[in-house]
Amino acid sequence: MTAEQHPVTGLDEVVHQRVRLGILTIAHEARRAEFGYLRTQLDLTAGNLSKHLSVLEAAGLIELEKGYAGKRGRTWITLTPAGDVALAEEVGRLKALIARIETNPEAR
Amino acid sequence: MTAEQHPVTGLDEVVHQRVRLGILTIAHEARRAEFGYLRTQLDLTAGNLSKHLSVLEAAGLIELEKGYAGKRGRTWITLTPAGDVALAEEVGRLKALIARIETNPEAR
């Protein structure tokens, strides 16, 4: 990203995409988020959530842990250290973007 | 979006998508942004920029104005009042999301 390019060019699409940003935020809060909880919180189908989890896992930002709660299969999602860093970088870039928008109050 | 759903579910994909968010931010700053300027600022191909401009125009968030600068055809992009409102709502939701992330500092 060269100096004169806009801060938005520094946003990582893997992190910034609306659903994935929600997954990372909830995993950050919960430290360990269960698949079903993520699905209801983000109002998603299981297939849609799985698709986004695969993208985040392939990027090394989350880890998936399969297990059981009683007799029922469960999947838990945790942030990797790289996931924490990526979320912090996204927050930093969003703040820069917001500051830029707010230093140009609507001129109309 | 029900109360217990995550703030990220309130984000509007038309606005939140990385390139489109950049277009709206620059149009907000510049009040009237020229196609070529947007293209270099956002490091895009003309085709990719046009695709995103069509999505924003169809959503009523921007207006496209065709004209000439000397003998060369030009296109200018301006935010509509609805575009200003949509950008302000995106900023409000991003701030809520950031506040939520930052009130859960990394617990590791």
Automatic annotation (TrEMBL), chains A, B:
<protein>
    <recommendedName>
        <fullName>Winged helix DNA-binding domain-containing protein</fullName>
    </recommendedName>
</protein>
<dbReference type="InterPro" id="IPR036388">
    <property type="entry name" value="WH-like_DNA-bd_sf"/>
</dbReference>
<dbReference type="InterPro" id="IPR027395">
    <property type="entry name" value="WH_DNA-bd_dom"/>
</dbReference>
<feature type="domain" description="Winged helix DNA-binding">
    <location>
        <begin position="19"/>
        <end position="98"/>
    </location>
</feature>
<dbReference type="Pfam" id="PF13601">
    <property type="entry name" value="HTH_34"/>
</dbReference>
<dbReference type="InterPro" id="IPR036390">
    <property type="entry name" value="WH_DNA-bd_sf"/>
</dbReference>
